[in-house]
Amino acid sequence: MKPLPKVIILATGGTIAGSAPSSTQPGYTSGKIDVEGMIQAVPNLDKLARVAGEQISNVGSQDMSFRIMITLARRINDLLSKEEIHGVVVTHGTDTMEETAFFLNLTINSIKPVVMTGAMRPFTALSADGPLNLYNAVAVAADPKSCGKGVLVVMNDRIHGAHSLTKTNTTSVETFLSPINGIMGTVIYGSIQYYRGPFRHHTHLSEFSLEGIALEGIAPTGVTDLPRVDIIYACADMPPDLIDCSVKNGAKGIVIAGDGNGNMNEGTLKNAAQMAKKGIFIVRSSRVPTGTVGRNVEVDDDANQFIVSDELNPAKARILLMLALLHERSFQEVQTLFYTY
């Protein structure tokens, strides 16, 4: 009889590992249950795969840092280089899950499945969603059909691609949607159906690498080897000097979460253009939850040396720009990356 595939669960914390004093109260503390406790709470997991767990961190994902992301990416690359391991599942809080998923999508160099999952209700809650999400995530990671699809996120019976998904609700179990491109597939009690594959570069096709980024001696809140990129939220009559504040504090790039099609008021536009001419990378994204940001539509991006985010929301645009700026590039070269990834 052929042995079951081997899947490693890497736990980082989040609501899926959260605990509350009672099963019916909304307040809870993230990251209280360890990986072994989560594994033991899921019936029949051993019928899907040979499962082992490792604890990478145990934080609420509002405290997710690039230090943890890099540690996680390196561990995944190491695990997936071993022939006997078929896939990896990452448990993670939902607040910043889309950012970590996209970061891994750009920095994992394997064709093997990497599947993220979490929960909107804590481990101790009545009708907790975490155990079934974890069961389905292991099923997806163990399935050979999941190879080559990039980093996937499994929540609420849906399979999302890292490029497209976003959190859309503060409390609902149906919080994750892929509003522009749609979901990749479904998984119902471990039964998987794929509708499509990814259409942008990812994982084994990615040009990005974490080689040479040192973690030793760096504060847990940040990694100095990654260039600083800030997000500025556009609004009516926004102060143009927000751009100056970011640059003065060391930002090498700025993502504008713009109005509508990545717009900003006249004063901010002028200030951003001046900074772009000085070598600060300015990306126009949008605070609007769906749609793409088009180049040279209402703004002359060529003249201003701006980059448009295309489909990427501000949080993901920041991730891509940070990795892009690890190497010297022109703004045109960075723009090509936004159409590629």
Explain this structure.
The chain is α/β, with parallel strands linked by helices. The protein folds into 2 domains: 200 residues, Rossmann fold; 112 residues, Rossmann fold (3-Layer(aba) Sandwich), CATH 3.40.50.40. 26% of the residues lie in helices and 20% in strands. The strands form 3 sheets. It has an 8-stranded mixed β-sheet with strand order 2-1-3-4-5-6-9-10, sandwiched between helices. Strands 11-12-13-14 form a 4-stranded parallel β-sheet, sandwiched between helices. Strand 1, helix 1 and strand 2 form a beta-alpha-beta unit. Helix 3 packs parallel to helix 8 and helix 5 packs parallel to helix 6. The radius of gyration is 20 Å and the shape is globular. The protein starts with 5 loop residues before the first strand and ends with a helix.
Short description:
With 341 residues, the protein is α/β, with parallel strands linked by helices. It has nine helices and 14 strands.
